[in-house]
Structure formats: C-alpha cells, structure tokens
Records
---
Amino acid sequence: MRQATVYIDHQALQYNLNRVKQLAPQAKIVSMVKANAYGHGVADCLGGLSATDAFGVACLEEALEIRELGYHQPITLIEGVFSEDEMQVAVDQNIEVVVHHQQQVDWLRTHKNAYVGKNLKVWVKLNSGMNRLGFKVPEIIEVINSLKAEGFTCVLAMHFANADAEQHPLNEQQKQQFLQVKEACAPVLASCCNSAALFKWPELNFDFVRPGIMLYGASPFADKSVKELDLKPVMTFEAEIIALNTIQAGESVGYGSHFVADQAMQLAIVSIGYGDGYPRAFPKQNYVAMDGQLTRVIGRVAMDMIAIDVSGLNASLGTKVELWGNTRLVDDVAEANGTIGYELLCRLSNRPQRKQI
Ligand SMILES: Cc1ncc(COP(=O)(O)O)c(C=O)c1O
C-alpha cells in the first residue's frame, strides 16, 4: 500500500490550545475549524480541541458536520447563513450566526423567538476597513442597539486585515473604530482577535478570541517561526522512498529535465506529488527531512512522485521522508513555494491516508 500519510497529533493540538489560554486567559476560545480544520480533517481534530469553548466555521454544512460528530459546543457561522431556510436549521441545531448585511438581520428577526429563547448570541460584523463583510460606522451602532432592544445578545465582531504586519496604518484605524462602536453599544460582547492579533494585542482579547492557524502549529507571521511562538506543528505529512538511483554528472532528472547533475549523486524517489496536494512550483530550493536532516528536492514535482538528493545519507526502500512536520516546517515549504502555510494545509488532497496520533 502506498504510504503517503497525514498524521494529526492531538497532544500538539491541546498544547496549542493551551497557548491560546495563556495568551488570553479571560476570553472564551472560538477555535476556527473551517475548511475541514484548515485541511487537517475536522473529524481527526475535534478530539484534540475538546477543551475549547466554541467552534468557528464558514458555512452551515461545516457546522452540521461538527454536530453529527457529537460535539455540542456553540458554533459560529462566520459568514452567517446564505438563505432564510438555513436560519431555521441553524436555530434548530443551536448554531450562532454572524450578520453582515441587512437581509441577514431580517432573516434573524423572523426567527427571533426561537433564537432569543435558546440564548443564542448574534455576531454583528463591523467593516472597519477590510471591506469584505460588515456594516460600517455608524450603521452598525444602529443595528446592534436595535437588536439589543429586541432582546438579542450581540457580539460586536471584527477581523483585522493586517494583524500579521509589523506596522500598518489600517491596524490603528480598525482598532479605533472597534473601540468606538464598542463604547457606543455598551454593554456589548466583543471579539476581534485571530492568531496574529492574539499574540500582538493582549488588550484586545475581550470576550471571545478566534484562533485558527496557531492551533494547528503554523505561524501567522512571515517573520516568526512556530518555535519562536512556542507552538507545535499538529500535522506531519510523510511518504516513503520507493526507488533509489545513482546518476552521473550531466544526467537529468524528471519532467522537463530541468535539473542536471554536476557530479555523480544518489537519488531517492518518494511516492508523493501534486496529486496529494504537495505543491508543484518552487521558485526557491525546496527541502524535505529524512532522519531529522534536511535534504534537497531535485527536479520537478510530478503528480505522484518527487526525487530527493540522498547522497551521503542512509536511505533505503521504505525509508520515511517528512514533507512537512516538526523538522521541515510547513511555513518553510510555503515560503519556498511562494505562498503561506494556511494554503498548503488547506490544499491537501484526500489521497494521503490520515491517522491520529
Ligand atoms: C473571521 C475570522 N476570524 C478568525 C480567523 C482565524 O484566523 P487565523 O487563522 O489567522 O488565526 C479567520 C480566518 O480566516 C476569520 O476569517
């Protein structure tokens, strides 16, 4: 059997969740498990996140999967419902909604008695300059105050566009608008921190924090590694060597024959490729880890195979190779690929086997 495997480490998930608790001891934690737990597999992750206060997902289908798996914590739909029918299902399943436009507020009002009766919170989204979703100031003040007057419990919610940037003028603008609305609607529950904001602005933790990437042990910052942030990679993506070749100077490797050896070398062929979600294009030199040691990926990534340089290394058929994990960090693979760890994690295909450890 082909041995390409994604391992999900529950202790690492628990450790990272605990890091969130250390950073935001007073806040409730809404663990973001959208996009199949950032590609980790929601069914494989929820056990490791059982100490969370709530979950955040992008759509009703994702929320229902959590309910079907038997988890009863509150769930927030971060884009709200997409139609009025969904509102009924959400209420029935104790699923909370974001409202970011007037039609969603109208749908919510239609279900007011059930929603308020079940003590569900409504998350009202502020558009403070990201210009994706939400009401602008002063409209949001009106929306929150009228919902409160009708008996709804509101959470003022916002998302930073540049929480990962060292300095960005929009950060201050977004903070100021958030604080202004919070004051104008007081008392109101509040939530604006994703992973990067959690690390940077402890004073903005408020009632609910919404960590995503840090739970999975990848970094929200381009210039800070998970080791510096004291997070543990949850996913180890591994495959094995299925062939060994010696090539001479002048011989090429793989599609396009782009790599030409300048001296004799030992190659190993590993059964992993873009069909598994391993990226194909590497503007920078990419590496894998073998026995805790980094070694080069050689030539083009194919659908099912890559070649690696094992000159001087102890490689044999069946030797395990880490595509990303504790030694070769997903953030470093992403950097070589010109993207971010989030994308590589989410983009895995369903071909690799999945195992919880
Ligand atoms: C509204 C919202 N909150 C929180 C998060 C979590 O962000 P991160 O994974 O950077 O912690 C996201 C992710 O996209 C989001 O859209």
Note: The first helix runs from residue 10 to 23.
---
Amino acid sequence: MLCRIGDVEVWRILESNDPFKTPEELFPEAGPDVRDIIQAHVPGACCAQSGKLILPVQGFLLKTPDHLILVDACVGNDKTVPSMPEWHQRKGTRFMSSLAAAGATVDDVNYVLCTHLHTDHIGWNTQLIDGRWVPTFPNATYMLPEADDEFFSKHAGTAYEESVLPVVEAGQSERVSTGHMLGDYVSLIATPGHTPGYVSVLIKSSGAEAVITGDALHTTAQLAHPEWHFKYDMDGAQAVASRRTLLGEASERNQRVLGSHFQLPSIGRVRAKGDAFEWDAD
Ligand SMILES: [Zn+2]
C-alpha cells in the first residue's frame, strides 16, 4: 500500500518507469537551463544514458470502505501508438501484477476514473481478446470527464477508438462533470488546460485529504516553475492557472499529493515558497 487517507487505502498500480523524452522537448519554452533546474530539484530525474526525463506511468487504486476505484488506466497492451515506439503494441505484465499485488482482480473494480482521455491514461480500459477490444473491467462503470469525451469523441483518433469507444458501446461509461462525487470519499476537481475536461481527484476521509494530480503537473520541478508549459498541454495558459490553483490549495490544506508522473514514490506535500512552491517528499 502506498498510503492511507483516513479510511481510504491508496495502492500504486505501476505500469512502467522508463525514460520518456528530453526536458528540452517536454518544456520547450522553459529556457536553456531546464535540464539543470530539473536535476537540481529532482536528483536522478533524467536517465544518465539517454538524457531523457524518466516518467513513471501509473494509476492509483483507491480502496474505500464501499468501492474499488481505479484512477487512470495507463498505456495498456497491444495499443496502436506508432508515434511512441515504447508504447506501441506493448506486451507488459507489470500493470496486472500490480493490481494483483494490491489484492484486486479485474472483476472487483467498481469504477474506472479517467482523469483525461490521453493514451497513457486510458489504455487498460480495454484489452484485445480474439481480435476485439473489450472492457478489461467487466463490472466497472467508466467515468469520462464530460468536456474531454465531448472533444475526443469528435476528434476521434486510434486511442479513442481502441480504449474508449468499446466501453461506451458496452454501456459501461458515464460522462461526469466537476464536483462529481464517487461515493462518500472521492470527488473531481476541475483543472483544465492539459485537456479541455481535465480533472484531478480529491480524496477526503476522517479529516485527511489527498489530491491526485494526474497531468496537471509532470515533475515536482514544476512546483518552483508552475509557469512552464508542458509540450502536451492543449491550452498552456489555462494549464498554468489550473496548476497554480491546485498547488495553492494543496499547500493551504496540507494535502498529501500523489503525482501521477512524479519520480517514484510520487508522494509528498506542497509548501508555498515566494511566488511558487516547493516539494516535501514523504
Ligand atoms: Zn500522462
């Protein structure tokens, strides 16, 4: 178990922890020192051989007293992602082993919550069985942020067709908007910018609080530089505003912060510092 937030157990469901792209590619407007700044804040953040930022791809399994909720479904197996060779037609076993290590089977999961509909957050929504994409979690309702589903269903690419459409067609999806409560312990916070309907996830129980950032941030170095635009933020300015609000709230409320792509173990707290923030690893 990664941590306990009141009565809610949080388990890491790690799929991979590999070099992704260089800091210069990922933060193209952050200036020539971006690599040094990241390395100063996060020692070991970049792979010594390739120079690329090491980016975990993981979901979080929340065991509340009432439900099992998977937040984000990683890249998945057999998916068509030619633009990302490491993600293309993967045959990985770590995601499913992590789920088993958390004491869960695919039948046990009640909800799959997609923070947004990008490739590395929806993959295990479905599996390829006998040439057909079928929902991986047969008893789950898949929660899709409304504005993301609206956008990506109209601009449907392969990721949507392989990982979202099959759960919609199976009648297992539900569009959700901000503020939606998933049972008594989990709710969605609007943090648009990375995608139009992007949501972060708030866990509250017995006076304790935690927030799952998803892709509102990609490295804890962004706490010192919330103004950095990430290459894949669809609306950079809106993402900066959402990031500042999320970090401000996390520091004021002393929330545990679970960073979906932060260096492992991806958990800590945020403190306000000057006009920005700093990271306190757990
Ligand atoms: Zn991501």
Note: The radius of gyration is 18 Å.
